[in-house]
Write a structure and sequence with these properties.
By secondary structure, this protein is mainly α. The chain has helices at about 5-15, 30-40, 45-60, 60-65, 70-75, 85-100, 105-110, 120-125, 140-145, 155-165, 170-185, 200, 205-210. The chain starts with a helix and ends with a helix.
Length: about 210
């Protein structure tokens, strides 16, 4: 089975399991989504969702965020990984948005903001502005390799590979479906690939043997 055939079969499975793809990070607009995604780096979505209600009660727009000190922001998000750096970036980002007139669906602008890389910008473009994007994090990178969809060494190349095998109109939902599947059925460790809905046929026999014994 070649990559295109695999992609079609995997897509059908994911569409059946996850016909709806809600964004797992709680938010109400583009700004709060951007903040939540920035906070999610090296932290679980669950932990972010525990922290953002209080954060957004204090600062759910750039003006309010910019009015807080870095220490105040850090205190609110202290349970989040890399809190000191993220607090500084949130304040700087809010100040820039106030000067520039707010968020806009522009790749160059989004990726120029403090603490906002390509992956974070991709999530906002895809999930708020509905502009086709394929955000790839370490989990999608891992599954793409496990399923034989990409041999890339980094997330940027994996993103290019996945964009090539799935049509643009499904990118926005497909990246979330893969994340949902990974969490529910396809963990990184102690995973019996032979019993997995996708790994059982998409992974090589050698890989099944190796990973099933971890």
């Amino acid at each position: 089975m070649n990559r295109a055939q695999k992609a079609l079969k995997i897509g059908n499975i994911l569409d059946t399991l996850y016909p709806e793809t809600p964004v797992p990070l709680n938010h109400k607009d583009a700004y709060t989504l951007l903040v939540a995604v920035m906070l999610s780096a090296q932290t679980t979505d669950k932990k972010v969702n525990e922290v953002t209600p209080f954060l957004f009660s204090k600062a759910d727009n750039p003006f309010k965020m910019a009015s807080l000190s870095v220490d105040e922001i850090k205190e609110i998000i202290h349970d989040i990984g890399l809190a000191p750096t993220k607090a500084r970036n949130l304040k700087k980002m809010a100040e820039i948005l106030l000067k520039s007139g707010g968020l806009k669906p522009d790749w160059e602008f989004l990726e120029s903001l403090p603490g906002v890389g390509h992956k974070t910008a991709s999530v906002v473009m895809a999930q708020h502005y509905n502009i086709p994007a394929f955000p790839v994090d370490t989990h999608i990178h891992r599954l793409a390799s496990r399923w034989g969809l990409s041999r890339a060494k980094n997330v940027n190349q994996t993103e290019m590979n996945l964009k090539q095998i799935w049509p643009k109109e499904v990118w926005n939902k497909r990246h979330l479906q893969i994340i949902f599947f990974g969490r529910e059925y396809c963990p990184a460790r102690n995973h019996d690939l032979s019993q997995c809905k996708i790994c059982s046929w998409a992974s090589t026999k050698k890989r099944i043997k190796l990973e099933a014994t971890k």
